[in-house]
């Protein structure tokens, strides 16, 4: 996961910078799972995240192809990031994945996550991930339960 300084360079307004600083420190920087993801945040805004995910060899199956479970975990993280950018703590209720094209180890994908619905208790987000040639690799959709607002 990108360090805090690089993370905040991608944020567009001062209000969002403060929100993302709290989210980054409170969630992403302090959680072992997130610290070990080979991700780089390329762009982030309210309800939107674009993240690069390096497909390292240890994330592949025996054929050298990215594991579907790893891609689902990345998409969950990506859509969660887009959802948390609204200032809410969320947890995944359900996730649906469509695997379209394989991606080999040593490559990377770029994922775009967007919130498509924000209700009182739930948020729905979608994502699309593309390989380095621009081919779609995976599409996902997820529902998140809103646990509450992030503390300032």
From TrEMBL:
Signal peptide: none annotated. GO terms for molecular function: fatty acyl-CoA hydrolase activity. Keywords: Hydrolase. Gene3D superfamilies: Hotdog Thioesterase. It comes from the Bacteria. The keyword Hydrolase applies. The keyword Hydrolase applies. Residues 64-136 form the Thioesterase domain. Pfam families: 4HBT. Belongs to the thioesterase PaaI family. This is Thioesterase superfamily protein. It comes from Megasphaera paucivorans.
């Amino acid at each position: 996961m990108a360090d805090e300084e690089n993370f905040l360079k991608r944020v567009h307004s001062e209000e969002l910078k403060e929100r993302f600083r709290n989210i980054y420190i409170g969630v992403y920087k302090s959680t072992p799972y997130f610290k070990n993801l080979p991700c780089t945040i390329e762009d982030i805004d309210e309800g939107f995240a674009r993240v690069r995910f390096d497909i390292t060899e240890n994330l592949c199956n025996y054929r050298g192809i990215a594991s579907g479970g790893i891609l689902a975990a990345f998409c969950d993280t990506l859509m969660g990031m887009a959802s948390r950018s609204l200032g809410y703590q969320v947890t995944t209720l359900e996730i649906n994945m469509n695997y379209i094209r394989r991606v080999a180890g040593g490559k990377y994908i770029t994922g775009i996550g967007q919130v498509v619905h924000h209700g009182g208790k739930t948020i729905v987000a979608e994502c699309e991930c593309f390989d380095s040639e621009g081919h779609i690799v995976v599409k996902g959709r997820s529902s998140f339960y809103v646990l509450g607002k992030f503390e300032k």
